[in-house]
Amino acid sequence: MIIGTAGHIDHGKTSLVRALTGVDTDRLPEEKRRGISIELGYAYLHAPDGVSLGFVDVPGHERLLHTMLAGATGIDHALLVVAADDGVMPQTREHLAVVALLGVRAATVAVTKIDRIDAATRAARLDEVRAEINALLAPTPLANAPVLAVSATTGEGIDALRARLLDVAREESAREDDLAFRLAVDRAFTLAGVGTVVTGTVFSGTVRIGDELQLAPGKRTVRVRGIHAQNRQADAAHAGQRCALALAGVTKDEVHRGDWVCTPAIALATARIDVLLTLWPDEARPLRSGATVHAHLGASDVMASVALLDRDALAPGETALAQLVLRDEVGAWHGDHGVLRDASATRTVAGVRVLDPFAPVRYRRTPERLRTLAAWAIDDRPARVAALLHNAPLGIDTARLARALSLANEDALALPDDAVRIAQTAIARQHLDALQAQIVERLADFHRAAPDEVGPDARRLKRLAAPRTDDALWRHALDALATGGALVRSGTWLHLPDHAARLNEAEQKLVQKLLPKLADGGFDPPWVRDLAKDCAASEPMVRQTLASLARQGEAFQVVKDLYYPLATIEQLAGLVRDCIAGPEGLQAASFRDATGLGRKRAIQLLEFFDRVGYTRRVKDTHLLRPDTSLFGASP
Question: pTM score, two decimals?
Answer without folding.
Answer: 0.75
